[in-house]
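Supplementary Text 2. Reproducibility record for the structural model of the 141-residue chain.

All settings were left at their defaults, and a single model was retained for analysis rather than an ensemble. We include the record here because the model underlies the residue-level annotations in Supplementary Table 4.
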Amino acid sequence: MYKFTWLFGFRLVDGQLNSDSVILVTRFEYTLLIYSLNWYVSIVIASLTLFVSIIVDNTATAIGVLMAALIGGQFLQFFLSDWPIVKFFFVTNLDLTRYLTGSYQPIEGMSLNFSIITLFIWGLLALIIGFQIFNRKDVLV
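Retained model, structure tokens:
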């Protein structure tokens, strides 16, 4: 039986191809990796959306603010990529699946682990702060 496999982990180091960390995975494992990383990003975006919807009382405003943050963040990443603080924006770290090739590094010093940790901190802070704000609001049932 023919088995579909992928090779990933190639890196460019000083303009030369480095294949020291190349691993062989099946198509199923690769698909599972992609869906897992996208699921993680979806959970972080959902927690940020919950945070924004707790702060503002209008659903349309919450959707508009988050869409503006997603679109505006992409522009900030593009235009301000020389600034070191841009790598800590949550929008800069959303495209986790590009790291699987090993050659994707939008800003110097970023890696898959860095992006996962940064997104985790953003999501955790959004949930903690949102929970605190929600408990302080006067909610009438």
